[in-house]
Design a protein that fits this description.
Layout: H1 3-6, H2 20-26, H3 34-54, H4 58-73, H5 81-88, H6 91-99, E1 137-145, E2 156-160, E3 182-186, E4 192-198, E5 203-204, H7 210-217, E6 223-224, E7 227-233, E8 240-245, E9 267-271, H8 274-280, E10 286-290, E11 293-294
Parallel strand pairs: 1-10, 1-11
Antiparallel strand pairs: 1-4, 2-3, 2-7, 5-6, 7-8, 9-10
Bound molecules: fe (ii) ion (FE2).
């Protein structure tokens, strides 16, 4: 019997265990978008290889479909379970790494996470973004510069963080004030910015859905080390999405979403200055962190 008669060659269109990926990839030959075609061919190739490696039972495959169904069903405007799934599998960080190859000295990037909100309030320097009055007061200050150390004025810093109980405002609608612990600041002529907030605390990613259940089944905890989120952008520079982390958090080495980079551990320190504390409306001593951001131009971004 010829191979053609058995249907084992991809061109016949007949499916077999051996030629499964080739048959399906052949069927997308007419796709007009070359990038879509490339992506789908790779996805099909890897997915079939995965299934051949695992050899799932029908029941196991049914469970996988049910998991993806539940992951979609729990999503809403404020709950992004698919981002969590991508995050806990390290895929978000991998996509971030591939897309942010930069020269040394540039600020490192990390995951966006599911809690960014567009259109946070614009504030003047010094504003206190903590609207619920909870937590340990913190002064956040720094500069935005280029890789030569020249200040970038007019850079925008979009900042957000969880409250003292480890929840973002969007997780506690009606409990926290709207836009609690969010704000946008613009650097001055020296590239400087400063604002008041509270010391971030570690928190669990939302773990009451299918992703949390999967984490437990994999023997993992859901915690993220304490951090503050930033998106920093300026005209003529590549925007960065990043965090700063407290350097003493117990979860630094086991972040549920793999977002920690050593360069992002920030200099949180105590300040004993009664006059400055009084100006800030803080008790003395108080906590401060200095975080500088270094942006690159599109030309400086490394390709390949
Ligand atoms: Fe976060």
């Amino acid at each position: 019997m010829t191979e053609s008669a058995t249907g084992h060659e991809a061109g016949s269109g007949y499916f077999s265990e051996e030629n499964s990926a080739a048959v399906v990839i052949d069927r997308i030959a007419a796709a007009t978008d070359p990038r879509l075609k490339q992506i789908m061919a790779s996805a099909i190739q890897h997915l079939h290889a995965f299934v051949k490696d695992v050899e799932p039972t029908q029941e196991e495959w049914g469970k996988a479909i049910a998991f993806l169904t539940e992951t979609g069903q729990i999503c809403n405007e404020w709950r992004q379970e698919y981002i969590l799934l991508s995050d806990i599998l390290g895929v978000s960080m991998l996509v971030d790494a591939i897309n942010n190859r930069k020269p040394s000295g540039a600020t490192e990037t990390t995951v966006l996470g599911p809690f960014h909100v567009a259109d946070a309030p614009r504030y003047q320097h010094g504003a206190n973004i903590c609207l619920d009055g909870k937590g340990e007061p913190l002064l956040v200050q720094g500069r935005v510069t280029d890789t030569e150390g020249k200040p970038i004025s007019g850079a925008l810093l979009d900042v957000w963080q969880a409250n003292d109980e480890g929840f973002y405002d969007v997780q506690q609608k009606g409990v926290q004030p709207e836009m609690n612990l969010r704000g946008i600041f613009e650097t001055d002529a020296d590239g400087r910015y400063w604002f008041r907030s509270v010391r971030p605390k570690f928190y669990p990613i939302p773990d009451d859905g299918p992703v949390g259940k999967l984490l437990r089944q994999m023997g993992r905890h859901p915690y993220r080390p304490a951090h503050i989120h930033f998106i920093v952008g300026a005209a003529g520079f590549e925007p960065i999405t990043t965090h700063i982390f407290t350097p003493d958090c117990p979860y630094l080495h086991s972040d549920a979403v793999f977002g920690v980079k050593e360069d992002l551990l920030a200099d949180f320190h105590g300040v004993d200055d009664a006059d400055r504390a009084a100006e800030l409306g803080f008790g003395n001593p108080y906590e401060a962190v200095t975080c500088d951001f270094v942006l690159v131009t599109p030309e400086q971004k490394l390709r390949g």
